[in-house]
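tokens incoming
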């Protein structure tokens, strides 16, 4: 049989054409689904199918050492309106749209009035115009209010008409956020750190960043599944909330330090101020303040200057220099240096004391050298004994670990820069100027750590900002005190330097840092701030004034550094930084001396409580259990005995009414529920005003009962006040 090739080709053509048309139809249908019906199918997917939905855990709180909340996560919301029906079928869509519009129009006034009450910054008219504009635009995702709102505001909005319906019936929907809040405001804000606006992105700096993995917890997973004709969110992997951190910061001490420092900064018009308060034995940082002057003249925490500023420390460094010479046996506290007229040539430069223009100090002992902070005396000692071998002096500093990085719990710390003779730019003048705190860079917290070691019997401990991580009330990880150097010097040297530092404050230039209540030990510091490559001689000179020390001298509990950068003269570490130190030390010391309230109770006195009216046998039983004297005891007859009470000097008097059912009882002091129960059991009607306990009643007790009569009970707090208190409690 002959094959008709023409017919075969025709058939092939039609087959290919049919397949091509089918392919085009599939592409067109896909395009319609992707674009024209995209929103509908997205709504369907949102409603019925959600696979592997990430559930974010709650971020852990940061809590102060005295139990106050310093950082916490609170929910915030943006609220939207979907004005258009998502039904695919046109008839069903029109019907659904008409229903939506009718409900919205019928409740428009109520919605706008409710929104105005919740958000008073916008009027009813503005809300009405705004919502109508969204409906005219046929918006599917219309922002109702421009700002994020709190959880309490969100719950209030959800009670409004239409908004109380689910999103597919009413159109109201929300987007939830987890916002990080600091209840203590700006206190230690830079040390606590910040998180990104979207907390899911993690932390940016401070404790938040350093302990991010502990705070953020672990994500969970859920999916949507139809079960018994209902769609449920099925948890595949539950989220694990982050741990809470117990910080070392004491809110009260932090507040004391911040106020004292800012007051002085404003007085001096200073550019930067730092205070760090540390517990001697543990290294716990109880307060850390970093203030920088903004363009508006006010002071803010912009960066952690206390740990990052690489500045020449000035005279606070002299203590380390003298300690090296004492430890090496080169000098004693009574060693005498002739400082002459306050000027001494050193390798082509002139070393000067601050009083050189008044003729200098002449002969001084080592104790006096630190007492008056003599540059000439200190530099002479170090140059005289170590000029031929500078490395020995540098090695002495390293023995005390003053050159070591602290490896703090938070990032951003600077590394001390103390040059050795083999390093570049180490000149003949380097050693004498290094001895008085120039040509070195040491962050303030490193200087404090060194002085803290002196206060701590020669044991240097690492400063810490976090004490423990806690989960559900249980400690999951502790951060114990770490020893950096178990012995910075011999006991002999330690005793000598502690006595010298006590006299520096008691008899020397650091008297403003002292206190009449207890002894303070420490050292002042005043240094010119180098302007980088320009050195110290460009324009107006800036100064670093500081005081570092500890208190009380005999049994040190706290160490502290105060450091202030200011423009121009006068500049005095004692008068400026020392006075701040003194003010803080006295207030902290007074805070520590506060005794528990129980100590103020006279054990010989008799405390008579206020007892509310009610069932007398129950009141009598409680009073006897508390061992409180009772007058007018009630016999146990097995029947309820209602009555009133009043306080006598040594007892509670119980007064029963034999025929209580015929009289209006006193319910003052009772809870609302108990009061209503008692009055209604007598046939009375009750009207409540406010919440809390009964403050007053409109019908006096003892009045003959008239069935159906209304008694108005005024309670201690109004509803508005109670709601405000509830909102405050929830937020904080």
């Amino acid at each position: 049989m002959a094959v008709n090739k023409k017919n075969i080709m025709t058939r092939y053509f039609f087959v290919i054409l049919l397949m091509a048309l089918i392919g085009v139809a599939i592409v067109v249908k896909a395009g319609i689904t992707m674009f024209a019906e995209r929103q509908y199918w997205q709504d369907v997917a949102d409603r019925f199918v959600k696979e592997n939905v990430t559930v974010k855990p709650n971020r852990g709180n940061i809590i102060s050492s005295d139990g106050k909340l310093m950082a916490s996560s609170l929910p915030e919301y943006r609220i939207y309106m979907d004005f258009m029906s998502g039904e695919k079928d046109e008839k069903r869509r029109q019907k659904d749209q008409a229903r939506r519009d009718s409900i919205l129009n019928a409740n428009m006034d109520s919605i706008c009035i409710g929104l105005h009450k919740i958000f008073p910054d916008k009027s009813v008219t503005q809300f009405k115009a705004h919502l109508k504009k969204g409906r005219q635009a046929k918006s599917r995702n219309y922002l109702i209010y421009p700002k994020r709102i709190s959880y309490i505001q969100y719950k209030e909005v959800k009670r409004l008409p239409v908004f109380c319906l689910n999103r597919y019936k009413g159109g109201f929907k929300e987007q939830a956020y987890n916002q990080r809040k600091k209840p203590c405001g700006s206190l230690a804000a830079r040390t606590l750190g910040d998180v990104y606006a979207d907390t899911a992105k993690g932390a940016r700096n401070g404790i938040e960043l350093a302990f991010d993995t502990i705070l953020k917890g672990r994500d969970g997973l859920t999916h949507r599944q139809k079960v018994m004709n209902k769609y449920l969110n099925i948890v595949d992997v539950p989220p694990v909330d982050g741990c809470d951190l117990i910080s070392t910061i004491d809110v009260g001490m932090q507040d004391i330090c911040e106020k004292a420092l800012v007051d002085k900064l404003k007085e001096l018009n200073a550019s930067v101020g730092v205070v760090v308060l540390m517990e001697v034995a543990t290294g716990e940082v109880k307060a850390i303040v970093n203030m920088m002057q903004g363009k508006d003249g006010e002071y803010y925490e912009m960066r952690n200057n206390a740990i990052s500023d690489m500045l020449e420390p000035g005279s606070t460094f002299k203590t380390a220099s003298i300690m090296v010479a004492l430890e090496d046996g080169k000098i004693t506290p009574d060693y005498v240096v002739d400082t002459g007229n306050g000027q001494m040539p050193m390798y082509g430069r002139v070393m000067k004391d601050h009083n050189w223009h008044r003729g200098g100090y002449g002969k001084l002992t080592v104790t006096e050298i630190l007492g008056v902070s003599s540059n000439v005396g200190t530099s002479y000692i170090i140059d005289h004994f170590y000029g031929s071998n500078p490395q020995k002096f540098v090695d002495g500093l390293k023995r005390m670990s003053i050159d070591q990085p602290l490896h703090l719990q938070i990032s951003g710390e600077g590394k001390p820069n103390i040059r050795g003779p083999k390093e570049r730019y180490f000149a003949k003048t380097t050693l004498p100027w290094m001895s008085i705190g120039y040509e070195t860079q040491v962050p303030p917290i490193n200087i404090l750590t060194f002085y803290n070691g002196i206060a701590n019997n020669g044991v240097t401990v690492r400063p810490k900002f976090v004490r423990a991580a806690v989960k559900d009330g249980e400690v999951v990880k502790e951060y114990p005190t770490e020893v950096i150097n178990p012995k910075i010097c011999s006991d002999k040297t330690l005793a000598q330097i502690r006595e010298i530092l006590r006299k520096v404050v008691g008899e020397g230039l650091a008297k403003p840092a002292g206190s009449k209540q207890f002894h303070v030990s420490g050292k002042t510091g005043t240094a010119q701030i180098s302007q980088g490559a320009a050195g110290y001689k460009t324009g107006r000179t800036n100064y670093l004034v500081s005081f570092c020390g500890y208190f009380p001298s005999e049994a040190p509990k706290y160490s502290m550094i105060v450091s202030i950068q200011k423009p121009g003269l006068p500049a005095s570490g004692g008068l400026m930084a020392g006075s701040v130190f003194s003010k803080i030390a006295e207030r902290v010391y007074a805070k520590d001396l506060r005794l528990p309230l129980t100590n103020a109770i006279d054990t010989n006195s008799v405390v008579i409580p206020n007892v509310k009216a009610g069932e007398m046998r129950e009141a009598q039983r409680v009073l006897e259990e508390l061992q409180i004297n009772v007058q007018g005891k009630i016999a146990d007859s097995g029947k309820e005995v209602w009555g009133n009470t009043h306080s006598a000097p040594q007892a509670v008097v119980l007064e029963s009414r034999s025929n209580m059912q015929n009289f209006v009882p006193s319910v003052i002091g009772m809870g609302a529920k108990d009061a209503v129960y008692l009055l209604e059991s007598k046939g009375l009607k009750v009207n409540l005003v406010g919440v809390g306990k009964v403050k007053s009643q409109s019908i006096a007790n003892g009045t003959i009962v008239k069935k159906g009569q209304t008694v108005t009970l005024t309670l201690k707090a109004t509803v508005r006040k109670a709601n405000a208190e509830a909102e405050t409690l929830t937020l904080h």
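note: The CA atoms of residues 392 and 611 lie 78 Å apart.
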